[in-house]
Design brief:
The protein is of the alpha/beta class and about 325 residues long. The chain is built from twelve helices and eleven strands.
Length: about 325
């Protein structure tokens, strides 16, 4: 009997949203100062970065912030450097951080999930399927071709993703291996610090061969390369195909895997309640705006709207990641720095 591993559980059972608050459609955004900052705990060019900069651009264009929302990158250790910064900024109500399953997985794998769960949860903004892709020069034109080679010689297929152990780009190939009848511990996987770090490893460059044969990432991080043909998508992890992308779902390709990533925003622990409410109203106005809805469509994201308890969701996802790693026979370990 085929196995089905699902990590979207709580999130796709209801709309993602603001902790302990109701829908904010139609409410006005709170006053904001130019000192408000949004941290991206990965390199530029990845999914967190795209989410933060798209959000800041829309909030500014629609006049939802009095001053500009400053986005800055603090990469390192698959997001754990940024997580340490959040702990050090306890009580700072002007700071937020974009995060998601990748950072949560890195925290769980490093035994630091409580540090993440101690932050102030604000909003969940989107879900996103994963894509399994190869560079244009690859000899594989279908997932079936790649998996046949993978089964014959697992070590000959170098896979890479923009997250560490326990993150979405790591868990997806492990689940695919299990669905293909392979032991996950045979997968040759290299973690990168976000999609921006993964891209040159997959594409190579002048005089430089690709460092990985197969990349796993969110589609939004590689849309220009997908559209130009620089990379070829072999399959999509969600339950539906991506508009404009000629690739089957994993289920259509014969592999019983259903998987979705997610992203949201947290603040440092112990911030004042009025700062919590201002952030939630600001991000709630973003989440319900037509411009954000269009941006999600353009990026292959699924917009989430207010409704779910984010703190409970994060705790549930931490348990799910830990259980999934144990189920796959993968010991937790610190991410590569």
């Amino acid at each position: 009997m085929k196995r089905r591993t699902v990590l979207r559980s709580a999130l796709l059972g209801g709309a993602a949203a603001l902790t302990g608050s109701t829908a904010l459609a139609g409410c006005s955004a709170p006053p904001a100062t130019s000192a408000r900052r949004l941290m991206v705990p990965n390199l530029p060019g990845g999914g967190y970065d795209a989410t933060a900069r798209t959000a800041a651009k829309i909030l500014g264009a629609e006049g939802l912030t009095e001053g500009q929302l400053e986005v800055f990158n603090l990469p390192g250790a698959s997001g754990l450097v940024g997580l340490s910064r959040m702990a050090a900024e306890a009580g700072n109500g002007a700071l937020g951080m974009v995060m998601g399953l990748g950072l949560l997985g890195a925290a769980v794998s490093a035994g630091r999930q409580q540090e993440l769960l101690s932050t102030t949860p604000l909003v969940l903004l989107l879900t996103e399927p994963g894509v399994v892709m190869v560079p244009r020069s690859s000899r594989w034109f279908s997932l079936g071709e790649m998996v046949r080679q993978w089964r014959r010689d697992p070590g000959a297929v170098r896979m890479g993703g923009g997250s560490a152990v326990g993150g979405p780009d790591h868990l997806l190939p492990m689940q695919l291996a299990r669905a293909a009848g392979m032991s996950p511990d045979l997968v040759k996987f290299s973690p990168y610090d976000g999609g921006g770090d993964l891209m040159p490893a997959l594409l190579g460059g002048p005089g430089r061969a690709p460092a990985v044969d197969v990349g796993v990432s969110g589609p939004g991080e590689f849309l220009p390369q997908i559209r130009s043909g620089a990379v070829r998508v072999l399959a999509v992890s969600g339950d539906t195909r991506l508009p404009g992308v000629d690739a089957p779902t994993l289920a259509e390709a014969g592999f019983d895997v259903d998987f979705a990533n997610w992203r949201g925003v947290v603040a440092p622990p112990g911030i004042p309640q009025d700062a919590v409410q201002e952030w939630r109203e600001l991000l709630g106005a973003l989440a319900t705006s037509p411009a954000w809805e269009q941006a999600c469509r353009d990026s292959g994201w699924q917009r989430r709207v207010p409704g779910t308890d984010v703190a409970s969701f994060l705790a549930q996802q931490a348990r799910t990641v830990k259980d999934t790693l144990a189920e796959l026979g993968l010991a937790t370990q610190p991410p590569r720095t």
